[in-house]
Amino acid sequence: RRFIADIFTDTTASLTGEQAHHLARVLRAQSGQQYDVVANGFLHRATITRVSDEEVTFDLGEQLETDSALPVHLLLAIIKFDHYEWGLEKLTELGAARITPVIARRTEKHLAASASKRVERWRRIVLESAKQSRRSDLVEIDEPMPLAQALKLVDAPHKLLLAETEEDNTLANALKPQHEGPDAEHNRALAFAVGPEGGWTQDEMKLFTDNEWKPITLGPRILRAETAAIAALSVCNALL
Ligand code: SAM
Description:
Elements: E1 2-4, E2 7-8, E3 12-16, H1 17-26, E4 34-39, E5 42-51, E6 55-59, E7 63-64, E8 72-77, H2 81-93, E9 98-103, H3 109-114, H4 119-132, E10 140-141, E11 145-146, H5 147-153, E12 158-162, H6 171-180, E13 190-194, H7 202-210, E14 214-216, H8 225-239
Parallel strand pairs: 1-4, 8-9, 8-13, 9-10, 9-11, 12-13, 12-14
Antiparallel strand pairs: 2-3, 3-6, 4-5, 5-6, 5-7
The chain binds S-adenosylmethionine.
């Protein structure tokens, strides 16, 4: 399995906290053993130099090939936390690069009020999911914020708003110029926005379109928010 360094230099890395405890106590790691460690965005076959319950240190050694993540930034409206957390785990497995939790107009008040207290837990969930799915990079989870603020964080050239839309803009059509165009390799950064249980309001839809987001549909059925996000990312993985 992979570990993700908490502290690193060009040649050494350390794991602390739960990861150190797991290595020392559960796996009974010892100096000289090798593990796969991600440090500074690269995966290494690293050799343990020192073990304690609090910290395990490594010589980083040989660099291994890494997966190339599809740079997808998701604006995910906050929904019931059990569904949200399940979605975060699956989106990490599917390669999301960055997730911005959005306090949407129709996010339930009690969820909006306690969302910022959940961020550390969400970061732990994506860290575990990254390790489990053998990713060599981390998913960035922002602090929860209102939509207008979240929109300013997005710099992807393709911005797709998942919504009930009158128009017949399908995801496959929206992605076509991207995976067939001359810049296909260099022009892959994408952003998706997924609304809360009650959907986006008209005002929010206008804010998106004023900021050059393109409304797209995943078909005639109403999907749960987490299903919509996972379906969209799966289609991107397949096409791009
Ligand atoms: N009635 C709500 C509405 O008006 O949008 C349904 C919301 S749906 C449960 C939650 C979110 O999932 C939506 O805001 C949208 O982002 C996404 N979604 C669900 N089904 C979709 C579909 N067929 N096409 C595009 N997006 C969808």
